TrEMBL record:
Cofactor binding note of this UniProt entry: Binds 1 zinc ion per subunit.
UniProt GO BP: adenine catabolic process; hypoxanthine salvage; nucleotide metabolic process
Full protein name: Adenine deaminase
Active-site residue numbers: 190
Keywords of this entry: Hydrolase, Metal-binding, Nucleotide metabolism, Zinc
Residues in Adenosine deaminase domain copies: 2-305
One CC-aspect GO term: cytosol
The keyword Heme is annotated on this UniProt entry: no
GO MF annotation: an example: adenine deaminase activity
Amino acid sequence: MPKAELHLHIEGTLEPELAFALAARNGVTLRYPDTESLRRAYAFSDLSSFLALYYECMAVLRTERDFDDLATAYLDRARADGVTRVEMFFDPQMHMSRGVPLSEVIGGLRAAAARSAASGGPQAGLIACFLRDLGPAAAAATLDALAEHAGDLLGVGLDSAEVGYPPGDFARVFSDARGLGLHTVAHAGEEGPPEYVWEALDVLGVERVDHGIRSVEDPALLWRLAADRTPLTVCPLSNVRLRCVEAIASHPIATLLEAGVNVTVNSDDPAYFGGYVADNYLALAAELGLGHDTLAVLAANSLAACLDHPPAR
Ligand code: HPA
Ligand code: ZN
């Protein structure tokens, strides 16, 4: 089925094999002796235990070529899953703090995206995420650095450790990003409470909410999301791996669908969470019993929820 992937951290597509290849190429040493021991470390207890390893492995990404190789590997994989459009997140603050210039990051990702589109693979747009745990002042400084690349970006987002970092703190930087012509999205309601989803909608004015699964705790919020057709970018395998949800069989996506919410299915950080986007659809079919018609609705929702509609081909 043709589908869009709208919640995908490109750094979260770094497979252990590529991580070791890039480490060797760049003279970087990982804490793990081999790919098997790195894979064994993928046993997470929550979001922060994942983020620690995810940020650690980013050390191997140093040059434009590295970002190109990373995105090319993902886009080839996504093409095999029927993905025609990707709106990929990246974390500029992590790379800038390691001394990697933004131009190398964006240049590499854009080069991979251009080759993918030219060869009939997925079209790709870029969403720069602010790390919410570094606070609004750091986000504002990052937006200043991003401004000269605004023409290469689709939008901005908000990610990293959620609880204790409410979206409302970032009102000014999100409004400034819109002033640069950028779309806005935010992670909310993954580990954080429904109030954070309300804030993402009412204070940040985002066009989509990333995760948003804890919205099921608040009937008024479900009604609001359904009435506005605000897309949620839900990531089932991620939610289970990070223990936000016990199992696919009890995933709140069923409640969201029943409430008429505009749900999409995505992979988040597929190298770390045991599956790419089609694996997420298949898990919902196998373990939650979603039928083909529902999967087709989810795929159609994803195509309609793109921030920018690429020309038909
Ligand atoms: N949540 C927050 N930040 C992230 C995630 C996530 O699921 N993946 C990568 N950064
Ligand atoms: Zn995410």
